[in-house]
Amino acid sequence: MDQREILLQNLERAQSKKLNREKFAEEFLKLKRQSTKYRSDKIYPTAASEQPENIKKNRYKDILPFDHSRVELSLITSDTDSHYINANFIKGVYGPRAYIATQGPLPTTVIDFWRMIWEYEVLIVVMACMEFEMGKEAEEKKNEYVIRRLKVTLNEASVVHPHQKHQILPRQTIPGPSL
Fold it and tell me: At the top level of its lineage, which domain of life is listed (predicted)?
């Protein structure tokens, strides 16, 4: 079974079980506390994201990529490009760089997002967020649940990527038992 099949199997299992909402809320709070501790104790430094030229590339000031596992861009297409994007590699069944977690691109980081997709030959894009959070547009508008194909072109070469959009909880919401 390849990594994609394992991921799909786990997603289907989670959906079919309709996970215990209280347990989910507990896990969510635990992760939030752990993340705060990592940041405050500098267990995993985030120096690259705190550089003055990179601060504006972070959608949220409290969600920063760890230096040890951050995605670095090398495909430079213009003078304004840099190596920084707010993204981290996530380990999977077959290695430490199986997945990439990133924020929804800002208007000023959309090109960086697509540079990353191209450079790391991302096979599938899964969007798990809300379009609007706290009254503000979170990212480019998309429908509630969509599966489609995106064509990415650089110079004469093109690649088609599957794209899945799953509307889940807004970033600022802690899930509760009434969900």
Answer: Eukaryota
If asked whether residues 129 and 99 sit together in one domain, one would say no
Indicate if 128 and 56 belong to the same structural domain.
no
Give the domain extent around 61: 22-104
In this structure, the chain runs to a length of 179
The reply to whether 132 falls in a domain is: yes
| 32 and 80 co-located in one domain | yes
Give the separation between CA 1 and CA 126, rounded to whole angstroms: 20
Q: How far apart are CA 63 and CA 142, in angstroms?
A: 23
Three-state SS sequence of 36-93: HHHHHCCCCCCCHHHCHHHHCCCCCCCCCCCHHHEEECCCCCCCCCCCEEEEEEEEEC
